[in-house]
Design brief:
two-stranded antiparallel ribbon; 2 strands; about 5% strand
Length: about 130
């Protein structure tokens, strides 16, 4: 596939988007060259289409991972995983409760979902 200087210049932002999504040069080359038809009538259009259609997903950044909630092993109160020590919340460990945080889900919904997961695990073990 041969491209003119102007065509390469026009396609450069699309390739830069691939690199911004942590793609390697080999990923771009593979996306552009795998399974090429013979002959290629419009190389720039084919390259543009492949760079757009096969664009990899945005990488997951550590700062965007949602925090997970679990239940306390003793009182079944929902809490964030970093607040549970050995599966117990601060009040069950005898510590003062942490300042209230905005809950992502109502406690009843978390309990119901946890019960459903436990039941499903029990069902699949047998």
């Amino acid at each position: 596939m041969s491209l003119s200087h102007a065509e390469c210049h026009a396609l450069a932002p699309l390739v830069e988007e691939w690199f911004a999504r942590d793609a390697e040069e080999s990923d771009v080359v593979r996306a552009l060259t795998t399974g090429l038809p013979a002959p290629v009538h419009h190389p720039a259009a084919l390259a543009r289409r492949r760079l757009t259609d096969k664009l990899p997903p945005e990488p997951i950044r550590r700062d965007r991972i949602p925090r997970r909630m679990l239940e306390c092993a003793e009182c079944c109160a929902p809490d964030y995983t970093d607040a549970l020590v050995d599966g117990h919340c601060a009040p069950c460990r005898g510590e003062p409760p942490a300042p209230a945080r905005r809950a992502l889900l109502p406690a009843a919904l978390v309990r119901a979902r946890a019960t459903a997961i436990r039941q499903e695990l029990e069902r699949t073990r047998t």
